[in-house]
Amino acid sequence: MAALLRFALTQRVFVLIAAAVLMFVGWRAWNEIPIDAFPDISPTQVKIVIKAPGMTTTEVEAQITRPIELELLGIPRQEMLRSTTKYAITSITLDFEQGTDIYWARQQVNERLSNVWAQLPSFISGGVAPMSTPLSEMFMFTVDNPSLTLQQRRDLLDWTIRPVLRAVPGVAELNSLGGYVKTFEITPDVSTLMQLGLSQDDLVSAINDAHQNVGLGRMNRGVDTLIVRTQGRFETLDDIKALAVPTPDGRSIRLSEVATVSIGSLTRYGAVTKNGEEAVQGLVIALKGSNTAQVVADVKTRLADLQPSLPEGTTINVFYDRAELIDTAVGTITEALIEAVVLVIVLLALFLGNVRAALTVSLILPLAALSTFILMHTFDLTANLMSLGGLVIAIGMLVDASVVVVENVATHQQRKAPLPFLHVIFRASKEVTAPVVAGTIIVVVVFSPLFTLSGLEGKLFAPVALTIVFAMVSALILSLTVTPVIASWLMAGTEAPMPKYMVWLQQVFLTSVRRVLATPGPAIAVALVALVAGGYLFVVIGKSFMPTMDEGDIIVQFEKSPGINLDASVAIDTQAEKHLLATVPEVLQVVARTGSDELGLDPMGLNETDVFLQLKPRDEWRQGSKAELIDDIRAALAGYTGLNQNFTQPIQMRVSEMLTGTSGDVSIKVFGDDVETLAGLTSDIQRLVTKVQGSSDVQAAMIEGGQYLNIKPKPAVAAQLGVSVRSLADQLIVQLEGREIGQISQGETFIPLRLSASAVQNQPLRLGSIEDVRHWPVLLPNQRVLPLSDVADIALQEGPLLIEREQSRRFAVVTSNVTGRDVVGFVNELQSQIQQQITLPNGYWIDFGGEFENQQRAMGNLLLVVPVALLLIFVILFTTFRSVWLSLLILANIPFALVGGIASLYVSGAYLSVPASVGFIALLGVAVLNGVVMVSFLEQLRLRIADLTERVEQGAVRRLRPVLMTATTAMFGLFPLAFATGPGAEIQQPLAIVVIGGLVTSTLTTLYLLPVFYRLLEKRRG
Amino acid sequence: MDKPALLVLTVPLDMKDDIVDVLLADQTLSGFTLRDVEGHSREHQHYDLIEQVQGHQHMVQVDILVDIDELPPLMERLRGIQKAQSLRYWVLPVLEQGRL
Amino acid sequence: MLNRLLGPLLVGMLLLHPHDVFSQTPTDVPLSALSSYTLTYVPAEAVAVKRLPATVGHITYRPGDAFEVTLPFAIQQFSPETLDGQWVEKGQTLAYLDGREVHHFFDEAASAESLFLLTKRHYERNRKDIADQVIKLPEWLAIAQAYEQAKLAYEHTRHAREWLSETDNGVALVADHSGYVEWLAGASMSTAGQPLLRIIPGQALRLEVAVSASQVPLITAFSLPDKQCVDPLTGIRPAQRDEQYWRTLWVDLASDCSLRPGQTVRVEPIASFSGWRVPGSALMTLDDQQWIAVLNNQTLELIPVDVRATDAQGVLIETTTPLGGRQVLNQSLSVVQGYLMGMGGE
């Protein structure tokens, strides 16, 4: 270390040039670092989505979900296998161990899936979902144009906008929702078929036979060659209408005379409404690991380029733009950063009484920050709330090293010894090198166990720890190289005497220290009382996992009666939307999506709606806080009975779903086999939960009680009349789901050609009741017609609507949010209630999950991690002081320091959450650092002052200024974070609160308690 | 220098910087020499663990060439250094001194 | 694969568990609970008929209802003047016939006639004599026999003769009745005595339609959706012919029908129905039962209904509660459903 110092002071120009280079490279790194709001907190996850149109839930589970799950269970390194099976769709998610390579994981899944694909029903579609995370939905817009129909707008989105946006680097997929997907549809008329003696298959054969262009080959014509083909492919609706269908009597008839040929649409599994009208929505999904800010910027550029070529009157109405959140969040942090820097400089100037000295110290801030960026870039860290927050936290601690150095330089300077200034600097710096290095290493060590955190908290706080480590290490090196160099120029010849008030303070302190050393009893007593009080508070304080970030946007989730159809669902949504717009002026626009999206990434049921509320800028609100606004919205929607409502936010909703498969603070999962039993248990539990204090938005997923109309051919009749399941299915499916028989390509678009009946509005026959189904005319092979009830048994059957599985076991879940109290307390009460009042049958068990699960795990991890950190610190202390007792002495001061942290947490009303715990860890480091600085100086004085008491007194007094400086710079450096209000600050706030409170007691401990105990210890050794 | 004498001062390692500072600041001295030595003294038992094991301590010896008349004031100044323990010293006569 | 069969109709929904709150009849809903929603009502429309899915029928006649023409001679040349299915009036020329036997027939007819007249005169003259016992029985017998034989032969030709007429263009076959012509396509004219054509009198033309045996008891009338007859066809008689799953019915055609024999038409069976029509959005399912919500002062009264059919205008329902003049909720019904299921309470 001394060598480094010497090198720096001898090669000052070199050091300056190196600093300049550092600044340049750092600036470059900052520009290249990917920026997002959050670090990538998604686990390595691979999702499979399979669509099986028309298949019931139990069939999908039996024929698709289970075989696939069975095949996937063999993949190594997996952590969790979950699936959700609904009508016509199943979604299977496989989570892998932390650190598993996503590409490898996808490949494994793909292999297994192709192994099992042949066993699955032939008409299914889907596969492995795009490589995205649940947080990848970063840009959402509706396509508006008053002069285009919903179908035309959807076409525009699918065929014009989507190909362009999919090509943007970093975009995994563009999901389309809403509107109608255009089809050409053919609706045969049964009685006409009967008249002509035709069957539906005859039509299909005729169509398929004609809809082909066949290349025949090449013909030699003289010396040339000519390519020959037959043409028959339909290109327009008229082509289809004009198709000649051969009839049994040897003649033919046009298709349009046997069937209605028209433009229809695919069966809708979902819809989008905007401000009370149906709309079409596009959703950009980013690739996992991409630079969100960059991708959003590119998407916007492409859209702007595309705009002129879109039909007139088209607007791309963006209602969610992750970049806004990023900017706000990053802006909040940056603001905090700048404020912190300013505060620190002011403080330094005050304490040192010397602006130039203050400047010398503060110059380390930008340099350390830039150096941190370089390291972040090298280690592929993204810039986000957490990592930048780590930087802000580090600000106060960054300066410690150079404060100590500069302060000592100033002190030495004051002595006005006729020594070369460079030597003075060297001396002063060398004197404090050991404690500074030890201190930095201690802080690094203190944060490194954070890297062992797993799960969500690991992903969130590892960047914090990493940036702090980078910042501290950079600061250390810089304060031992650049700071002395800068001091040599800036501080030369400016021996500022210690400011008068500082001198006065030192006097006051000396007196008090003397008194305390003389009668340590009261002080120790006070300390012990405080310790006990702190311990009590620690037990009593509420515990939670993570404070929720204010993302700015609000999502209200509606769940309506399970059997509702899409049109009815949308009708209710539009009412609620219009009402919201009319009564809550803070809402800028409302975009709601009901049901499933095209890709099936979020297969909500027809009764489930996510209502996205885009809000006006905060300064246009009437309310003061977000919580008040949410209350107003709740009030506005209070009259909307008959549906379940849940308030959440975009990222929060996805994170919840991603982590636990459900959204809600607490989820109670009941595992078992029989759906009916599960349903009964969940309804009982739901009632229980509602009664527990603090529960809100309690919901039990509706799994059971679905009814299906089951149609089964009567065996004797079927055999006699030549009716098969296939033939019945073929005829009836036309009326419901429809059946694809080909594709028409027009230019760049593909239009499905289907047998279906979506567009025939005024057909006299329609299926709208069970009676209709009973009377439905079935065309038999003998060209006669019988009602379906003559040919098949038609009956209602019960079956589940939704089957959820985890690790290949069925479960049902009750979710609840928690308001007004801490989650852990809530769960404890709930657990005991369930224990007392619910008896589980054999083979059934309950698991608690949700945010609560995370909190347990996080706390468990931290409790393991902290003792390890303490051990490491002990080792470092021992290496520095070579004395077990001194090391223990310093460690013993930690609890007193922590008391302040828990007190300030309690007073501020916050809970003990993961960020708060990280704050305690930081506090640990700071307390130890202060202790080290104090003790090392006391040890140094050992050679100069013989009398123990005097040594302790003098040492304490001499260290007053640096201790106060480091403490206050750290504290004030955190004030901006503690009081910041923008989105993103909520996560870091508890950390700041803890550290600030803890610094108060830590400083008192260092200045008073430590000398007392040191003296006691030395006396005993004496 | 009429009567050169060599003041040899044995100083614990930790005090090296302080002594050096004082000597540097003393304009009357023409210079000094430093030397790393290992030594043992029964009077000062503040050994760290290594020294306990080895049996001797790291120390620094300072050679200061000074006129015998200038010696007492120098000794006064050196006494004034804040220290917890005494510093061993001896003074040697110098037969000759100069520059080549 | 049975359940691949059809898209499930999610018609109903139970609230999770048998011993749940709503296994008894749902209660009425106060309007105040739905104050935030837009509620609109329509009156229930009384409906007396229900249409079943269309099928196909034939315009034809019952066996025996048409006049069949048979000529006792072979025809060598035949030139039809009327088309199959055409309406002809009595006396209209149907065709021209030629051939050796055709002309021979006229001679035959003439001689039969003269023979008849002769024997008749003889018979008449001798009738007095046998009464006076001037002649003996055997002689009388011979005279009577001759007379009867001649009469029969004459009658025999007269039937056919009535259908023929000698014209300047040849021997014409003329219609002895009015009606639709049905040429018997398989007629072999080179053989005497084969049925040549039938004349179907107007009122003999009927609709023949086969319907499922299970539906027969329901049907009260038929309508032709393609509007060949405006009035529904109500005179329905079953046919003798029975097959296992079908019954054939004969339906009288209404007077305004413009139909021809041999036509196949689409027919819609009409069932009698005593119920109401409400919009699709007025119907909900709860507890395995369909309901509508009817306005009753400040509450919505829930009325159980049975759904019978759906058409382009709405849903046909039957219920024991009279709905005349009542207002039926047709907007926001699904939240009533959710409300009754207990959704939205916290």
Automatic annotation (TrEMBL), chain A:
Pfam family, one: ACR_tran
InterPro entries found in the cross-reference section: AcrB_DN_DC_subdom, Acrflvin-R, CusA-like
Annotated keywords: Cell membrane, Membrane, Transmembrane, Transmembrane helix, Transport
Database matches in Gene3D superfamilies: Multidrug efflux transporter AcrB pore domain (3.30.70.1430), Multidrug efflux transporter AcrB pore domain like (3.30.70.1320), Multidrug efflux transporter AcrB TolC docking domain, DN and DC subdomains (3.30.2090.10), Multidrug efflux transporter AcrB transmembrane domain (1.20.1640.10)
Superkingdom field: Bacteria
Cellular compartment(s): Cell membrane
Record flagged with keyword Membrane: yes
Transmembrane region(s): 12-30, 329-352, 359-379, 385-411, 432-452, 464-492, 516-539, 862-881, 888-912, 918-938, 959-979, 991-1014
Bilayer disposition of the protein: Multi-pass membrane protein
Family the UniProt entry places it in: Belongs to the resistance-nodulation-cell division (RND) (TC 2.A.6) family.
PANTHER family: PROBALE CATION EFFLUX SYSTEM PROTEIN, PTHR32063
Protein name (database record): CusA/CzcA family heavy metal efflux RND transporter
Species in which this protein is naturally found: Fluctibacter halophilus
From TrEMBL, chain B:
Pfam families: DUF3240 (PF11582)
InterPro entries named in the record: DUF3240, N-reg_PII/ATP_PRibTrfase_C
Protein name per UniProt: DUF3240 family protein
Organism the protein comes from: Fluctibacter halophilus
Lineage: Bacteria, Pseudomonadati, Pseudomonadota, Gammaproteobacteria, Alteromonadales
Automatic annotation (TrEMBL), chain C:
Highest taxon of the lineage: Bacteria
Signal peptide coordinates: 1-23
Sorted UniProt keywords: Signal, Transport
The protein, known as: RND efflux pump membrane fusion protein barrel-sandwich domain-containing protein
Organism: Fluctibacter halophilus
